[in-house]
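Students often ask why we bother encoding 3D structure as a string. The short answer is that it lets us treat folding as translation between two languages. Here is a chain of 346 residues written in the first language.
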Amino acid sequence: MRANTVIMIVLAGVFGVIAVVLANMWLASQRSAMARTEEVQRDTVVVATVALKFGDTLTADKVREIAWPAGAIPAGAFKTTKELLAGEGAKQALQAIGVNEPVLATKVTGPGQRATLSAVLGEGMKAVSIRVNDVLGVAGFVFPGDRVDILLTRKVRGDGGTDKSFVDVLLQSIKVLAVDQVADESTESPTVVKAVTVEVSTKDAQKLTLAADAGQLSLALRQAAASKGETTERITLSDLTGDTPDDVAKRQAELAKQAAAEAQAAAERKRADDKLAGLTQAVERVGSKLEDLSKVKPAPAVASAPQAKEIVKEEVKYVQPEPPARATVGVFRGIKLETYDVPRQK
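And here it is in the second language, the structure alphabet:
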């Protein structure tokens, strides 16, 4: 048998053992993960067994209880079917509820209540209906739950006796509660309607009522995710291709005002240029004077007469120090040194 064959067999065996070990490790980790999952506390939540739409009555055969993590129960969910159906009278769906979707208290009526718009309204909100047609109602493509902008078109009599037309965005991001008499948000087929009911505050309800008498209301469908307002401005005939006489006169007045402002700015620039030219000439004159001064030869410097200085001589005398009165004398006695303090002889 060749050596290469033996080596391949050995390597195959080693890789096989490694694969078995890794597989056992993965299975062990999966078993531990499943054990940890089983340790999570469970609870129950009531969900729909069939698709429910606006106005459907809730019964025991349309809902069921399923296991749900205790720490992730949605707010307003019912834990048992008995809790959901408790009370005198049946409950109805206020919104579309899908299969296996938790049934929340905000999506159903109270016991014995009907699925009406009054149950759908938010706290402090009002429902107001406005008249539309196949054009003003976005060709019937507005459904319950959509958000729209409400536009007001009106005409006013100008000072010259001419009518001026303009459009204002009256309200933005208004929720549609119903179209005609349909309030089911699960409606998918477009229908040309004559009235649209929207949810607004009390003040906005007053605006809508007054605007319906002052001009013509129309709807502008917003993107589903666009709920924030935006900055708007009034649109008049002058913003279109055709201008009225008043608009032309106003535009001419603005052009004249702009021309006067440009003439004034040109005059100010001319004055600034004149001042700059004067400063340039002054600098040139100063430079020429400095150049003339640099050409003048300086006068020779005259040396000043030396001043007499008083010389002070110092005399140094050496004073012989007086010798000390006593002296120290050393005498060797064998190898021992002995010292004596004796008076010095003069």
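Translate back mentally: The chain is about 30% helix and 25% strand. Keep this in mind for the problem set.
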